[in-house]
Amino acid sequence: MPRFNVAIVGAGLCGLVFALALDKYAPDVEYQIYEATAELTTAGAGINMHSRTLSVLRELGLEQALLDISGNGESERVTLIYRKSDQRDAFTFSKADADHDDLQLTFHRGELQKLFFDRLLHPERIHLGKRFASYTQHQDPQGQVEVHFQDGSMVSCDVLVGTDGIKSGVRAEMYTQLADAAKKAGRSNEARTLESYIRAVFSGHFVYRGLFTRDPLADSKARPLNMSHLMIYCGKDNHVVTYPISKGRILNVAAVVTHTEMAGTIYDGPWTVDVPKSEVQGAFVGWEPEVENIMQNIGSWNKWAINMVKDLPTFVDGRAALVGDAAHSMTPFQASGAGQGFEDCLMLGILLGHPNVKKGNLSNILKIYDQFRRPVAQNVAELSVKSGNLQSLNHPELIGVTPAMSAAGEGITKAHLQRIADDLERLKGWRQGTTVMPDCQAALDQIQGLTESSLSN
Hints:
Blueprint: E1 5-9, H1 13-25, E2 30-34, E3 46-50, H2 51-59, H3 63-69, E4 80-84, E5 91-96, E6 104-108, H4 109-118, E7 126-127, E8 132-137, E9 145-149, E10 154-157, E11 159-162, H5 169-184, H6 188-195, E12 201-213, E13 230-234, E14 238-245, E15 250-258, E16 272-275, H7 277-283, H8 289-297, E17 301-308, E18 316-317, E19 320-322, H9 325-328, H10 337-352, H11 362-391, H12 403-407, H13 414-427, H14 437-448, H15 452-455
Helix pairs in contact: 1-4, 1-10, 2-10, 5-6, 10-11, 10-14, 11-13, 11-14
């Protein structure tokens, strides 16, 4: 008989990793996963991760399997290279070797999702075609959460975990309920603030995404630089990130265009659209030949409006919790969006596995999860914004430099670029030589130090 049961809304990367964490740390807790789509696909583009993220998946026994599918086909790690590229005579201004402490691993997102799915102990617990609608919590500590789906069905659980991404229905329902409670209490200003967390806001960045598949006939030839390393081609207001995935068979490309004046607004247009190659090329006219060659050789492009979740005042309400992008979707410039979600999953799985955790104290346990994870994830989201600005050469010393000046090689010196490289390295300091495990242990200590009766208060 399970101690309690968990309903997981969303079977993306975080939904699967959370299930893996429960498999390992809470085998006496039953879970079911409810996914809106009619089938799980392995589509997607690239994802890269650093050593702190790898440490989470190492805890789940996945390290070797990950290394088997990462890298450029010659090494599972890749070298990070920064170039000043918005001019014809481009040059490298920073390089971190593959054996640098902050290692970089690159993957095809679909291959990563398949790896997680294949390691589930209970894949039969995934229910497809279940689009979340709402939930209702009973006030009794022993009471359950009723989860309603758009097909009219309903399930009951002891804990509801929303891993349903940036457009999270669970987050929308949680903050609608919190806002309604504030309205009933006469706190109208608080209610309006709570309602503002329901929708994600625009980051000010558009990203053109494309994939270049290497010709199998070229496998015996030397790889071009951008097929072997993680490249960041920097220019004023824009930058391009490329790295190999699928063991070097595919080059993942993300070309970033910045509109700082739009940051923080609600983006009402479609978040993803197909665009012609000419639009992408037009945004990077005059850049170094290597970048132009990349643009020319990719036939299919998508334009993504990069949105993000504002800093939430809580990830939890009663026996409902938000995890991953549902809680803290961020810009991609720290390569940490998925990794922060994985840290959420690991900690929450470890906490729910503690033998002192019972049906009656679940809401208190979720508060401990929120206490430890929310400040960390929101700090990383802030660092990611700063990193994105620097990669697009938006630095306080360069405010007066226009894209035209930068393209002409004016206004930005090698000393400026070195300071940008140093600042980018400092912004990554939180993840170098660290893991989430000390926080997990500190959270466990809080549970251990409390009696079951005090947890239930």
